[in-house]
Specification:
Number of helices: 5
Largest sheet: 4 strands, antiparallel
Low-confidence stretches: 1-7, 75-88, 239-321
Shape: elongated
Distance between the termini: 74 Å
Helix content: 40-55%
Radius of gyration: 57 Å
Mean pLDDT: 80
Strand content: 25-35%
Number of domains: 2
CATH architecture of the largest domain: 7 Propeller
Length: about 625
């Protein structure tokens, strides 16, 4: 604790302003004393001259008498000096004294002038001194006010310090509470992970049991159908002739079988009744119709079993527009300034080119309708556990798959706001999630160095591929999975085999992959600010695209092919879109406009008419 006399104590500021006032007084004393330094010696010199003049005056009064006496004594004592010198000597002395008197008067006048001048200067200095004294009094009053304000602020400072001390103690208590809650959260997360693993295992066991039951049921139905077919082939039908029913006078009547009759009794009865060498047309038609019904039932069973896998009736795939020639965008048609609450990371068109999905860091997926060159809000999909990293439509356009930071991918059905399935099993954020060429299978890539294949009907991971590097994006072909990684390599995996079948090295970390519709060319975007077209027929890089000003802004920047594979499109960190001609390798166009921040992803609709870009500033832009 600092004492009153210590520099940090409450009396230290008082000593400071006192010393400041003493220094100001000393400075004023020095400045005003300097003004009188010349005047005082001059005045003293004037006094000395006046005293000297008084002495001379007294001497002048006494000297004539002394001179006369001296001259008389000389005249009587000495006879060598002439008389003319005794007569002229007083006159010359008087003249000399008069001249000296005039000189002294001039000196006195000059000194009087100097005294007047110095007196005027003294008056001026006196007025300045009075003015400065008035200013000093005003400053002293101001100092008193400032001291009062300082005292008040010092009291407020003490109060604030007390409040800060209390808040610091509360903060420490909150930190301890947060540490306890974090520990509890970690325990709950571990329990949730264990529960999730057990749930996945139970789902897998339930799916296996369901498949086993379905196979048993199918085998039983097949056995039953085969038995019914055998019975139908052996069964005979009794026909009674009724002459009046047909034009020829004879007719066939089908007699229904009694429930209690056995096949052996029926066979014996038919053997007794029928001794003809032919079979009637009605019997043949009955057997064929029965067989058709049985086969139809079998097909219906298979169809129902197929439906049970997806958990919903199979929907017919919508017709996908065929793009003959893609149209290069030239201008922005619609700009949504605040499409999301935070950064927009992913965008994807539906198969019919009229539905658009965007996902962002706000954990939401917005569906938009492209109507008349405008984006109209359709639906918001909620329930994602983390920031959205990628979105994709299934081939029918009825489901949306998204990768999230919550170590999982989630599946929505278009028209339902809540998530339909959660594909959990990754140990780090999921950076890519894509449907395969069917709506019942998907592939995900993660920063946990794995690529997983999923059976969406059972929400079950059917295969896990371990990789040596982070996976930033995946695409799927007929029987192949292609993944781009952080170690500057593109890997190819056969869906029917366990191992990697090919690796293509590229310069720079791979941020995105785009597969052409004919599955012959692959477009990759990497952090070395280049796009590369890989010819999958020869497994070699065919084109490398660069441009002045183009810069890949992040590890999740997406580039895409046009639907006809004629152009390659990517967004840059400066907010511009760059379009290259795939055949010539030249920069076709550079679009500047609404984006003021880095473009994260772009999408080109299947009809080739529209392009959509999203950026870090929450904008969604429709280009035409």
């Amino acid at each position: 604790m600092a004492g009153p006399g210590s520099p940090g104590g409450p009396c230290a500021p008082a000593a400071v302003w006192k010393r400041h006032i003493v220094r100001q007084l000393r400075h004023r004393d020095r400045t005003q004393k300097a003004l009188f330094l010349e005047l005082v010696p001059a005045y003293n010199h004037l006094l000395e001259k006046a005293e000297l003049l008084a002495k001379f005056s007294e001497k002048l009064k006494l000297e004539p008498e002394d001179v006369a006496c001296t001259q008389n004594q000389d005249s009587w004592g000495e006879f060598s000096e002439p008389v003319s010198d005794q007569v002229s000597s007083p006159a010359s002395l008087r003249a000399k004294w008069q001249e000296e008197e005039k000189g002294l008067q001039l000196v006195c006048g000059e000194m009087a002038y100097q005294v007047v001048k110095k007196s005027a200067a003294l008056d001026t200095l006196q007025s300045q001194l009075e003015e400065r004294q008035g200013r000093l009094e005003a400053l002293q009053a101001c100092v008193v006010q400032l001291q009062e304000a300082r005292a008040q602020q010092f009291r407020q400072l003490e109060e604030r310090q007390a409040e800060n001390t209390a808040q610091r103690e509360a903060y420490q208590a909150l930190l301890e509470q947060a540490a306890h809650q974090e520990a509890a959260l970690r325990r709950l997360q571990e329990e949730a992970r264990d529960l999730l693993e057990r749930l996945v295992q139970r789902k897998a066991r339930a799916a296996a049991e369901c498949n086993l039951r379905n196979e048993r049921r199918e085998r039983a139905n097949q056995a039953r159908v085969s038995q019914e077919l055998k019975r139908a082939a052996k069964r005979t039908v009794s026909i009674s002739e009724i002459p009046d029913t047909l034009e020829g006078g004879t007719g066939d009547q089908i007699v229904p079988l009694a429930p209690a009759e056995t096949p052996e009794s029926l066979e014996s009865e038919t053997c007794e009744k029928w001794k003809r060498s032919f079979r009637s047309a009605s019997a043949t038609s009955l057997t064929l119709s029965r067989c058709v019904d049985v086969v139809k039932g079998l097909l219906d069973f298979k169809k129902r079993r197929g439906h049970s896998v997806g958990g919903a009736p199979e929907q017919w795939y919508q017709s996908i527009p065929v793009c003959v020639s893609a149209q290069i965008p030239t201008q922005a048609q619609d700009v949504l300034q605040d499409a999301h609450l935070s950064e927009v990371n992913a965008v994807c068109f539906g198969p019919n080119s009229s539905l658009l999905a965007t996902g962002g860091a706000d954990r939401l997926i917005h569906l938009w309708n492209v109507v008349g060159g405008r984006l109209e809000a359709n639906q918001t999909l909620e329930g994602a556990g983390g920031s959205i990293t990628s979105v994709d439509f299934d081939p029918s356009g009825s489901q949306v798959l998204a990768g999230t930071y919550n170590q999982a991918a989630q599946l929505w059905k278009v028209g339902e706001t809540q998530s339909k399935e959660t594909l959990s099993g990754h140990k780090d954020k999921v950076t890519a999630a894509r449907f395969k060429l069917t709506r019942h299978q998907a592939v995900t890539g993660s920063r946990d160095r794995t690529v997983k294949e999923w059976d969406l009907g059972r929400a079950f991971c059917s295969r896990t591929i371990n990789v040596l590097s982070y996976c930033n994006d995946v695409v799927c072909g007929d029987h192949i999975i292609i993944s781009g990684h952080n170690d500057q390599k593109i890997r190819f995996w056969d869906s029917r085999g366990p191992h990697c079948i090919q690796v293509i090295p590229v310069q720079g970390r791979v941020t995105s992959l785009s597969l052409s519709h004919d599955q012959l060319h692959l477009l990759s975007c990497s952090r070395d600010n280049t796009l590369k077209v890989i010819d999958l027929r020869i497994s070699n890089v065919r084109q490398v695209f660069r441009a002045d000003g183009f810069k890949c802004s992040s590890d999740w920047t997406k580039a895409v092919f046009s639907p006809d594979r004629s152009y390659a499109l990517a967004g840059s960190s400066d907010g511009a879109l760059y379009i290259w001609d795939v055949d010539t390798g030249k920069l076709e166009s550079s679009l500047q406009g609404p984006h003021c921040t880095a473009v994260n992803a772009v999408a080109w609709c299947f009809s080739g008419n529209h392009v959509v870009s999203v950026d870090q500033g929450r904008k969604v832009v429709l280009w035409h």
